């Protein structure tokens, strides 16, 4: 893209949706851009590098209200609803306790991924947080697929904030001290400013932190309050992307989609034994034949992490080669940037499995030049989840 | 001979002294791009036509092409940017210059903007 095109303000934005925090973003000097049909803050005044590093060092506040919050209310009971949902995903819901969440994905008939999400047992309903770009499609799919077993409600009147970083616990527990004892992937209800909030100890940054679902009309005052803390700075989607990439987390539509299977994508950790071949509820989800076969036999290609040995960022779409001169690509990059905490270019890519071993030297094509890269361990940074 | 400062609508500045032009991106451009993490520069000695891709400036988010604002030979590039791309942010019209061109066709300068016209463009 030309410099001119890159920095031109986006054209008409009237068709874009806004989150309940839009006015706050504008007041904080956000640079706004279209994302998944929303006008979203890409960065604030500090800029992506500082926002990224601030999240790792202190606490960042993200508006992720564009994401879909879907509540599934059982027609009979939670177990019956869980069985209906397990038919759509290779996840263990029957044994997911109340107040806990898991990572999961809807699969299609060829084993591809329709969307990935966090799913929570809320006691009297199942709660999914899904990608913004997929939320309408997911709701329509669920309404059809679990008809008669669950009713599906899109919680469009709720905002979602993420408070992420080593100071997140200290800041949030100043509003609700009981939240300090929460563990990674635990979900609770609490009153924040007298407003009924659903809080999960999770995120998309690799840091400890929380995602906070609040009624839309309460979102701005909560955000303002959190931003009053010296530890907290507003962080845009630009740093959210570099933080998740350093953590090796997939972005739907970039690193995973309907044409990539969870096995190719290295998401097998999310498929429990009870849903695998020979397990008590093995299979029984779309594409199970393909996915269960790949679990034992492997796949022709795999998602890998790449580090560059030079300073030039290797970005999505860059083709990968086994050597400096061959004409046949053996893979391509799906996400890539300069990792501010790693202080080097990092990327994720799909490569032929023969080239996927850690340490394998490959070449990425960047503007016609071959840049040496090496297959590297994911995540690129140490995660700091509060597991115990 | 005193230097003449000119600008392009692509947010480049040119400091022209005789047949030599030093080129960089404007304070407005660097602010809009955010922190640069990589700058790719042309080879000294290469000949560029006006409008040809000359350099690439990369932020965390994206890579942006910088086009040659004039036809001519690249006489020098700012080697310091290889290790310190942030100079483009901290001093865009000083230590953050990108490259120098020996101007082949002085008439190309006539199409460029003066500072007042550029300021009016970026508001």
Protein topology:
The complex is a heterodimer of chains A (388) and B (123).
Chain A: H1 3-7, H2 22-27, E1 31-35, E2 38-43, H3 48-57, E3 59-63, E4 68-74, H4 78-86, E5 101-107, E6 113-121, E7 126-130, H5 135-145, E8 150-154, E9 158-164, H6 168-173, E10 187-192, E11 195-200, E12 209-215, H7 216-228, E13 232-234, H8 237-246, H9 288-297, E14 301-308, E15 319-321, E16 331-339, E17 344-352, E18 361-366, E19 369-376
Parallel strand pairs in A: 3-13
Antiparallel strand pairs in A: 1-2, 3-9, 4-7, 4-8, 5-6, 6-7, 9-12, 10-11, 11-12, 14-17, 14-19, 15-16, 15-18, 16-17, 18-19
Chain B: E1 4-7, E2 12-17, E3 20-25, H1 27-33, E4 36-40, E5 47-48, E6 53-59, E7 63-67, E8 72-77, H2 87-90, E9 99-103, H3 115-122
Antiparallel strand pairs in B: 1-2, 2-3, 3-9, 4-6, 5-8, 6-7, 8-9
Structural key phrases:
heterodimer; A: 388 residues; alpha+beta; Gyrase A, domain 2; Elongation Factor Tu (Ef-tu), domain 3; six-stranded antiparallel barrel; 21% helix; globular; B: 123 residues; OB fold (Dihydrolipoamide Acetyltransferase, E2P); six-stranded antiparallel β-sheet; 3 helices; 9 strands
What does this structure look like?
The complex is a heterodimer of chains A (388) and B (123). Chain A is of the alpha+beta class and 388 residues long. Among the domains of chain A are: 3-63 and 158-185 and 205-245, Probable tRNA modification gtpase trme, domain 1 (Gyrase A, domain 2), CATH 3.30.1360.120; 300-388, Aminomethyltransferase beta-barrel domains (Elongation Factor Tu (Ef-tu), domain 3). In chain A, 21% of the residues lie in helices and 31% in strands. In chain A, the strands form four sheets. Chain A has a six-stranded mixed β-sheet with strand order 10-11-12-9-3-13. In chain A, strand 10 (187-192) and strand 11 (195-200) form a beta hairpin. The longest helix of chain A is centred in the middle third of the chain and has 13 residues, at 216-228. Chain B is 15% helix and 37% strand. In chain B, the strands form two sheets. A six-stranded antiparallel β-sheet of chain B has the order 1-2-3-9-8-5. Chain B is an alpha+beta fold. The chains are: A alpha+beta (388), B alpha+beta (123). Chains A and B meet through helix 1, helix 3 and helix 8 of A and helix 1, strand 4, strand 6 and strand 7 of B.
């Amino acid at each position: 893209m030309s410099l001119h095109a890159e920095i031109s303000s986006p054209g008409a934005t009237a068709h874009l949706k806004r989150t309940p925090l839009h006015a706050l973003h504008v007041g904080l000097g956000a640079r706004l851009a279209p994302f998944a049909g929303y006008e979203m803050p890409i960065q604030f005044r500090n800029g992506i590098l500082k926002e990224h590093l601030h999240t790792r060092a202190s606490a960042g506040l993200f508006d992720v209200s564009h994401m879909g919050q879907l509540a599934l209310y059982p027609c009979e009971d939670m177990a019956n609803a869980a069985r209906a949902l397990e038919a759509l995903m290779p996840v263990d819901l029957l044994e997911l306790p109340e107040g806990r969440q898991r990572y999961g994905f809807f699969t299609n008939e060829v084993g591809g991924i329709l969307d990935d999400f966090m799913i929570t047992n809320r006691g009297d309903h199942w709660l999914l947080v899904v990608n913004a770009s997929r939320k309408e499609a997911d709701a329509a799919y669920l309404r059809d697929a679990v008809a008669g077993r669950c009713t599906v409600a899109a919680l469009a009147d709720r905002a979602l904030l993420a408070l992420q970083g080593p100071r997140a616990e200290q800041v949030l527990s100043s509003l609700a001290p009981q939240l300090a004892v929460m563990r990674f992937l635990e979900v609770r209800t609490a009153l924040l400013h007298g407003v009924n909030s659903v809080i999960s100890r999770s995120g998309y940054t690799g840091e400890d932190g929380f995602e906070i679902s609040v009624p839309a009309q309460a979102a701005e005052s909560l955000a303002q309050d959190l931003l009053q803390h010296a530890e907290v700075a507003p962080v845009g989607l630009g740093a959210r992307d570099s933080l998740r990439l350093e953590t090796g987390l997939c972005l739907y539509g970039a690193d995973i989609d309907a044409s990539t299977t969870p096995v190719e994508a290295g998401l097998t950790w999310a498929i429990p034994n009870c849903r695998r071949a020979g397990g008590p509820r093995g299979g029984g989800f779309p594409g199970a034949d393909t996915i269960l076969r790949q679990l034992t036999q492997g796949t022709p290609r795999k998602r890998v992490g790449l580090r560059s040995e030079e300073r030039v960022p290797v970005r999505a779409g860059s083709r990968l080669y086994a050597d400096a001169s061959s004409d046949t690509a053996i893979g391509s990059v799906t996400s890539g940037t300069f990792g501010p905490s790693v202080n080097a270019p990092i990327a994720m890519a799909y490569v032929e499995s023969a080239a996927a071993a850690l340490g394998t030297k490959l070449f990425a094509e960047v503007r016609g030049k071959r840049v040496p890269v090496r297959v590297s361990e994911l995540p690129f940074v140490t995660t700091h989840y509060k597991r115990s | 001979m005193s230097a003449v400062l000119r600008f392009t609508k692509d947010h480049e500045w040119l400091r022209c002294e005789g047949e030599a032009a030093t080129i960089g991106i404007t304070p407005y451009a660097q602010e809009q791009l955010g922190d640069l993490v990589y700058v790719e520069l042309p080879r000294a000695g290469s000949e560029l036509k006006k409008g040809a891709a000359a350099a690439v400036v990369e932020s965390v988010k994206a890579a942006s092409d910088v086009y040659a604002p004039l036809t001519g030979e690249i006489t020098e590039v700012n080697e310091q940017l290889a290790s310190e791309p942030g100079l483009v942010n901290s001093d865009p019209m000083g230590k953050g210059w990108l490259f120098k061109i020996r101007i082949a066709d002085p008439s190309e300068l006539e199409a460029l903007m003066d500072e007042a016209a550029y300021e009016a463009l970026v508001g």
